[in-house]
Amino acid sequence: MNAKRGYVPKDELSFSPEAIARMKTASRHVCYLLDEGYDLKQASTFVGNHFLLSERQRMAIVRSVASAGQLRNRKAKEKSSQEAAEVWIDGFNTVITLEVLFSDSLLFECMDGTVRDLAALRGTYRIIPQTEKAVHALFDTLKEQNIKTAHILLDEPVSNSGRLKTLLADIGEGYPFDLDIQLLKAVDSALWDKDNVITTDSIILDHCIGWFNLLKICAQKHGAKTLCVWEK
Q1: Would you give the DSSP letter of residue 183?
Q2: 113: closest CA among 78, 141, 142?
Q3: pTM of the model
Q4: 98-132: burial string, b at 16+ Cβ within 10 Å, e else
Q5: β-strand 115-117 against 107-109: which pairing, if any?
Q6: Who contacts 60 (Cβ-Cβ below 8 Å, separation ≥6)?
Q7: Which of 90, 68, 223 is nearest to 164 (CA)?
Q8: Rounded distance, CA 37 to CA 32, Å?
Q9: What is the pLDDT of residues 149-191, one digit of tens each?
């Protein structure tokens, strides 16, 4: 089976150097509106229409930017590996991003320091050839960071969540940390009151007690190439 998570043939044109330059200007406009109190969806729609951006380009900006207040909040809650002996993992969010990495599909360097993709889940998921490699990469990094207990939360309503749970459990038997895998109706809200959360989901980052940027460590370790659509 040939599968590339998060790949769209038109991406090479949509994220050419010329397109990235236009998107950086658009991102600056979106950030200005966010800091003036506009909703992200409203701001990205208004600016996206003005700059004639495609849906994928708009999604890249939405996932890359944040208001100044959000950035301060997320930075204040970010933990180091030494503080994260026990972690709570947003399962699909984490595994899919790593699948995208090993599919050589687009990854983006975001303003809050995370690495995000453009793969849309929308309730459907299937295991692909890169899944097993993604799980090993996740578990290898947890081991290297001396994590003692890893709770992985999967959205039960998503298709094949049970199959992914089985795969995670089977691979996890070879690792030294305690592994707890749960199927839940609502993973996002379950993570809001947790510390040392591993996710790139913006809403969870804004609500959780603290978070650990493990995906960035994985991306750097495996030499991931990231695009930046905002002005540093």
Answers
A1: E
A2: 78
A3: 0.95
A4: bbbbbbebbbbbbbbebbbbbbeeeeebebbebbe
A5: antiparallel
A6: 15, 23, 106, 108, 118, 227, 229
A7: 90
A8: 9
A9: 999 999 999 999 999 999 999 999 999 999 999 999 999 999 9
